Amino acid sequence: MANQTWNPENYNKSARFIIEFGRPVIELLAPKPGERILDLGCGTGILAKELADTGCEIVGLDSSPEMVEAAKQLGIDARLIEGVEFESRKKFEAVISNAALHWMPDKYLVVRRVWQALKPGGRFAAECGGDGCLRIVREGMKIALAKRRLDYKARNPWKFCEYAEFSEILKAQGFKIEYIARIDKPTELGTEGLRDWLKVFANSHTEGLEEADKEAFYDEVETYCKPMLFKNGKWYVDYVRLRFLAVKPEE
Ligand code: BEZ
After folding, report:
1. Which residue puts its alpha carbon closest to atom 2 of ligand 1?
2. Could you report the per-residue pLDDT of 183-198, keeping only the tens digit for each?
3. Which of 89, 197, 220, 230 has the most crowded CB, counting CB atoms within 10 A?
4. Entry pTM
5. In a mutational test of the pocket of ligand 1, which residue from 102, 104, 161 has the highest number of ligand atoms less than 8 Å from its CB?
């Protein structure tokens, strides 16, 4: 029943740090003006717009109609996809993906589709949630859901990429890995803290709860996480990222 929904305005307000997360990925990709680049999971299109502004031809893909609409508002050629089912007759020099792959459960399929979208010599640069990402927050949610006799697993939309497993998937497809790293990235949240983060990113977990019970759920998750994630008056989330650059060899 994992059914995450998105509100682009709230996302841009509460998750600005995701845009910052994209900068090292752009650096890793090293885009050149004129290159045709696919942004897989383009969200509200802010990074796609930055790439477009450097003279690249960008196509954005997202499975959320609201996000696609928001990206189009920025002038991005954004398209709605079902899961990871995309096909492109005109191939790309590069695929970039920031904070999106952990929403796509079938990593083999994603990697195959990216491979098919790339020209020989094409680059795939991405960052996503890595193994152990949000361990504390997820534990807090598990406990709060179990108290309501609700199954965390059935509501959880995230499949984080385990370093060794994901490396194998890339290599099995034929990619050459130029760089890969697992990065601990505790991330400071805005003034609304963990509650706001949960509202933006974890709404599939609270689906169907009455509004008052949702608030109680947030209270319980905060109470569990506070000793570990609230420091010097600020909330943090316990992100772990997997960042990589892989190349489809020339034929
Ligand atoms: C992210 O956007 O990076 C993210 C969102 C939810 C869970 C994990 C990571």
Report:
1. 99
2. 999 999 988 899 999 9
3. 197
4. 0.94
5. 102
